Amino acid sequence: MLDYNEIKEGKIIIYENEPFEVLTSWVFRKQQRKPVNQTKLKNLITGRIAEVTFHDSDKVREAEIEKREAKYLYSAKGEIWFVDPKNPKNRFTLSEVLIGDQKKFLKENTLVTVLVFVQNEEEKIIGVKLPIKMDFRVVEAPPSIKGDTAAGGSKQVKLETGAVLNVPLFINEGEVIRVNTETGQYVERTENKF
């Protein structure tokens, strides 16, 4: 059990019998009253955001989340297929809604971390985490323009997965770039050639 002041960013707790990730947490005291923890929680099953205030007498359970490795296979008809890399017979599908915006960074044979919520001997997949940084080939890019790049100009390019991204002007078609999958931003150009 977690006390009200132990409910911090990044923790996954049970609230209303469902797993919630703590997005923000702020412990403060209102005038002469007892301290409270004002939080913003994200439901890991529905994606709903809730603002909840925990008082000093409140206690919550930390959610039991297992992390398992899986390999992305393909997407079809709103479903995304994965396989257990240790046992190719164990294939499973998740909805595009559960994956969310991360879908645009899924490449075939990418190893991902699957988050499994365990409650009362029942298991439910509640999310997928991609590697934080991944390399992608640029398949479409407008031509580079010589000129003032000191001002930090950018252009939009299309990646091999179909994602569209803002990158510096010097990035060309056919190059491989590294992208932060959490923020969806360009990190650097790599020397890798696929």
TrEMBL record:
<dbReference type="InterPro" id="IPR015365">
    <property type="entry name" value="Elong-fact-P_C"/>
</dbReference>
<dbReference type="InterPro" id="IPR014722">
    <property type="entry name" value="Rib_uL2_dom2"/>
</dbReference>
<dbReference type="Pfam" id="PF08207">
    <property type="entry name" value="EFP_N"/>
</dbReference>
<dbReference type="GO" id="GO:0043043">
    <property type="term" value="P:peptide biosynthetic process"/>
</dbReference>
<dbReference type="InterPro" id="IPR013185">
    <property type="entry name" value="Transl_elong_KOW-like"/>
</dbReference>
<feature type="domain" description="Translation elongation factor P/YeiP central">
    <location>
        <begin position="67"/>
        <end position="126"/>
    </location>
</feature>
<dbReference type="Pfam" id="PF09285">
    <property type="entry name" value="Elong-fact-P_C"/>
</dbReference>
<dbReference type="InterPro" id="IPR008991">
    <property type="entry name" value="Translation_prot_SH3-like_sf"/>
</dbReference>
<dbReference type="InterPro" id="IPR012340">
    <property type="entry name" value="NA-bd_OB-fold"/>
</dbReference>
<dbReference type="InterPro" id="IPR020599">
    <property type="entry name" value="Transl_elong_fac_P/YeiP"/>
</dbReference>
<dbReference type="Pfam" id="PF01132">
    <property type="entry name" value="EFP"/>
</dbReference>
<dbReference type="InterPro" id="IPR001059">
    <property type="entry name" value="Transl_elong_P/YeiP_cen"/>
</dbReference>
<protein>
    <recommendedName>
        <fullName>Elongation factor P</fullName>
    </recommendedName>
</protein>
<feature type="domain" description="Elongation factor P C-terminal">
    <location>
        <begin position="134"/>
        <end position="189"/>
    </location>
</feature>
<dbReference type="GO" id="GO:0005829">
    <property type="term" value="C:cytosol"/>
</dbReference>
<dbReference type="InterPro" id="IPR013852">
    <property type="entry name" value="Transl_elong_P/YeiP_CS"/>
</dbReference>
<dbReference type="GO" id="GO:0003746">
    <property type="term" value="F:translation elongation factor activity"/>
</dbReference>
<comment type="similarity">
    <text>Belongs to the elongation factor P family.</text>
</comment>
